[in-house]
Amino acid sequence: KAAGKSAYRICTPALREAAVGRAELIADLRRAVRDTDQLELEFQPIVDLCTGAVRGAEALVRWRHPRHGLLRPDRFLPLAEETGLILAVDRWVIRSACRAAADWQDLAAGTAVAVNVSAGHLRRADLTATVADATDAAGLPPGSLTLELTESALIEGTDAVLDRLGQLRALGVRIAIDDFGTGYSALSYLHRIPATELKIDRSFVRRLDDADRRAYATVEMIRRLADAFGLGVVAEGVETDAQHEAVAAIGCPHGQGYRYGRPRPLGELRRLLAEAPDRTGH
Ligand code: C2E
Ligand code: MG
Ligand code: MG
Ligand code: MG
């Protein structure tokens, strides 16, 4: 007990430092969100597994912190969620991604952009207006915007959330269920959600490498489920040739992952779209 007590004293400065670090990071984030000049988007290609053509790109947010360098979302989105700053981050991401995709339509018409929407944002009535304003302002056809929502966000599926999803679909926006298979009760809500596609979580795709029969069966089951519901499918996190062969053999139409391309700045995505042979497949 005595050791515990002194351990407690030794710990205190470290804890205080951590708390200060956290408070500072929150203050920094508040500034970054207000000025938005430190926020950046990277775009990861989503490809057609038969032709290799780029069909779309997922916009992923990064924070170029003046002292800590380029931060990935897992470093700051949890803080953004706790403080409510996530709404401003999401709004900035939606607007910027729509602008980027509107600009690349002349290189690759119909190539969609996907953005991640937080659970908190989905619960807000103004999400529909934010999305409609963003596509209008950018001049992006709403059908070229996909909103990615996680199962956990959808599971809270109140009637208000379902109404909002209906409004978004009525705008023409596409709705993807992200990290599909990791939630708790996929089957109980799937028929009520007006989704257009499922993104198979990379935890299943990763296990395809070891010729894991259960992982194979899971991915195949999700692909069949999507077919039965008339939904598109994207296999996430494809890293190796073996994973690629497996998801292609299973009949997943689309894939995303390091095997096809890492997230990259807009300029590099545009270069990829410009280089692409014949995207129409003719
Ligand atoms: P996510 O939506 O599932 O995005 C895919 C994540 O997997 C990205 O991480 C991407 O870089 C990573 N990834 C892609 N291919 C591979 C692969 O082959 N192997 C491996 N190991 N990883 C791969 P990132 O950029 O760190 O984003 C993490 C999560 O943060 C995203 O997961 C998404 O849930 C969230 N997020 C990212 N940007 C935003 C945003 O603008 N708004 C909101 N609300 N959430 C975001
Ligand atoms: Mg996503
Ligand atoms: Mg995902
Ligand atoms: Mg994921």
TrEMBL record:
Residues in coiled coil: none
Signal peptide: none
Lineage, uppermost ranks: Bacteria, Bacillati, Actinomycetota, Actinomycetes, Micromonosporales
Organism: Plantactinospora siamensis
Residues of the full protein shown: 545 to 826 of 826
Top-rank lineage group of the source organism: Bacteria
Protein name from the UniProt record: EAL domain-containing protein
Domain EAL: 22-277
